[in-house]
Amino acid sequence: MSLKKPVKKLNAETARKIAAGEVIDRPNAIVRELLDNAVDSGADTITLEVNGGGVDKIRVVDNGSGMTKEDLETCAHPHCTSKIETDTDLLNLSTLGFRGEALASIAAVSRLSIISAGWKMRASITEDHILEPFAETNGTIVQSEGLFENFPARRQFLKRPASEGLLCKNTFIEKCLPRPDIAFRLVMDGETKLDLPKDVTLTQRFVRAMNFRENEKLFYEISSRDAASKWSVKIILGDPGVNRTNKKDIFIFVNGRRIQEYSLVQAVEYGGQGFFPNGTYPVAAVFVEMDPHEVDFNIHPAKKEARFSDISSLHHGISTCVRNFYKNHTIAGLASNALKRNDGFDSKSEETAKQKALFDKLFEAPVSSSKSGAFVPPSSAPVSSVIETKTSENYKGTYRIPTHETEKEKFNDSSSFSGSVSRNFSDTKTKLEMFTAKVSTGTLGTKSSPTSISSSTQAVKPTASLAEAALDTAPEKEEISDFKFLGCTLGTFLVAEKNGSLFIIDQHAAHERMLFNRIMNEKPTKISLIIPYILETEDEDENNYLESIKDQMKECGFEIEKAGKNTWEVNTTPDRWEGTEKDLHEAILSKRLEPNEIIRSIAAMTACRAAVMDGHILDDITAAKIAEEALKLEDPHCPHGRPVYTELSREKLFMLVKRT
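-> structure tokens emitted (660 positions)
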């Protein structure tokens, strides 16, 4: 209490302005609240009109259920709502709006009018629910005019109309993304900016609303769900070639509401690690549907944040789903490109047409996730069949998996498909049959046979011997007759010719990927700690999480056991682990990285340090061997996501020199 002035109760007008300021801080907040109400009304057509950046006028027209005269008489009073009745209803919310603050707050800082059911209601800081007859309308028309006219201190801090209008547009897009079943139209200062039809796919709504420069065909929809039915998720992901230098184009929606949730953005980022060059991020929209009892939106005045009862399983499910998609998409893309490079195909051959259809389907089909991170096609199914497979105890994934019914042959995994296609049709056919068999048996993209690497159980240290070992003990590949090494250039690149194309290979990225593959194929060696690491957990959720990953941690070289109520001991680590106790705590409990991801990070760092560097001069034999092996890589990206090589076809070169 102040010593100079006594405590006094504020008058009603001042109190309303203060309360309104928590909900309506600028024009786009009005857009947010009115669009929420329009969606809740059951409308399938919604139009937003914005004039003067939303300061002059905001108008929302919908064809929903409308409001009665009785509703209009009370709707703009504080905490008047039709969506909840008791405080327990806050635990089971199924609507976007619920607290009854929006209309009262808008009326406190602007001139509000609502038209519905043959009546027009006006409310503001000077008018209190004045009703008058009006022409019958279908649905509801809500209009706000003169924002902050009675609050000049707030109005002077608004941005210029163009900037405020852009914020209104962004809010409009956020509201229309999760509802492709509703038609949305945005009109700004009399000009239609967006006109989005209803009954489209989530992918179509996302790409068209965001107006991306990339083609719609570069975006895919994948899905996953929790076996206990606590949540399900649909994710729109851009091709690895669709990337951004920031995370602004990663959207998180929970039960139709966009929220700011760092951990779920992080899950998308982790899932894409290794498929995007350093400093770039995927373009994604995550749509989560979950039991309302598992999430609380009533923690932020503008409902921009949420609290989850258990976010760890959702985080894990999203990151696994994203990782599986990019892994399988990369493999499918390589196979498709290998097929398209072949010049000797007989396009009229029935068998060729079948094989081409197989690759096209594999390239185009979206792939969902499993908790184990494995690509698990069924042994026999029709092309493009949709199969819902229980891949683990906790997760289910929807797969669209092409298979070839006539292909039953299995073969040793050490002779994996290299992505090359011979000019001879019979050779090509044999390779395609091998690749098809790998799809059918579920071995596509798995690691090389253990017999192809050293049987020594000792870890390989990041020294020159590691670089030599990666080349000397690489799995044997069939000889490619048309490979031709041309030489080194600029101290960094290797130039080679193969399959009628010119390849420019980054020697560091290529060597780094080879070393990384070798390290990941070796069983890690454990080192016993004289003084165990201590992991302190904060709650039972973290204890349950550590218990659930204990076996995975052991496989990766980390042996952990519970030593107290909220204490865990780490007794061994992999020999390549160079972090501290704090680093391990952050990776496992703060970032919730999977044990395999920790090992992957170690392997990537080790391979990067051991690989030949920019400017390192190679002899011709070593350079040729790196170049040849680089073109056989199943995944031609370094562990950090950079491409190993650039391919220039004969046609592309002709186009570059303007030759026809």
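Confidence is low (pLDDT under 50) at residues 343-349, 358-432, 439-469, 473-480.
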